[in-house]
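Posting here for the record, re: zinc ion.
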Amino acid sequence: MQTIKAAVCRAFNEPLVIEDVLLAPPATGEVEVTLDAVAICHSDITFASGAWGGHLPAVYGHEAAGVITAIGDEAGGFKVGDPVVVTLIRACGSCPSCAGGQPTICETPYDTVKGPLQTVDGGPLDQAMACGAFAEKVVVSHRQIVKLPAEMPKDVASLLSCGVITGVGAAVNAAKLRPGQDVVVIGAGGVGLNAIQGARIAGARRIVAVDMTEEKLDIAMEFGATHGVLASQDKPWQAAYKALGGRGADAVLITVGAIPAYDQAPRYLGRGGRAIMIGMPHSGDMSSYEPVVLAALGQGMVGSKMGDVVIQRDIPWMIDLYEQGRLKLDELISGRWSLDQINEAIEDTKTGSAKRNVILFDRG
Ligand SMILES: [Zn+2]
Ligand SMILES: [Zn+2]
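Prediction output follows.
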């Protein structure tokens, strides 16, 4: 066990507490990554609010990048010194879902309370989302990490862990967009902007962003939206039809957690269209739709976790797109903070104006 600094959630809806915690060495199949950067995701905030339950105390944080500093046996060919991005997708590789190419819905349970973290007095400490990356180091499965180019900045790379792969993956893997199709993206936040980028990369004809403020619609246009629709107006789908030349969309990507977005999503669909549910509402929230319309128009609604990505396949091509100037990452970062400032960074993210706030670790 070694002692590291972490931001610990001791009570829901309370500020995180910076304290010393214990980290176990990597077991078989695991690596230790010393972090350079971890981004703050709305999922961290939702967990810290208690809306998804979970054990306390806990260490959240799951969009991280750093350098491997120790490896266990059978570490998948990774070496000490490799720069890597760390994701929350702890897939076993051999269950029916993994074997079928869907590691984001791996069926093998992993007990995060029995993970590598303990409080400094040896008590249980939840390694939330199988990462626990609001900490100087993480110990994770080698299946959760992907090697990075040495020159890639870690703050930028950390974004590939979650928001980027979820948004781009939803457009490419879940919606299976073809060139020329029309897309509506509900929500222009951290995931929504990447869904818009994914639709652009997939060759969408028209990309309509739907959000509550003009400011967010302007940002959506910078990421590839061709039209913006204010969600606050009456029957906003009518404005989307207009933008799409009088028809509904081939795909609607719902990237927010607000239930009205789910209730309204089928309204934006054209005949044969698919609504992809990507955002993560609070547990217990319910939505309703009119089945006869979906049946009569041959439409569908489907959930997608983490953009249905296979990280070993998808993150390397996203890195290439970034290096070719075809995937915007730098522009997604709105602020850089230290671990000691994490509660301020979280508050700033809650205001909704922030794209991604990133915690940088001082490894001096
Ligand atoms: Zn996330
Ligand atoms: Zn599995």
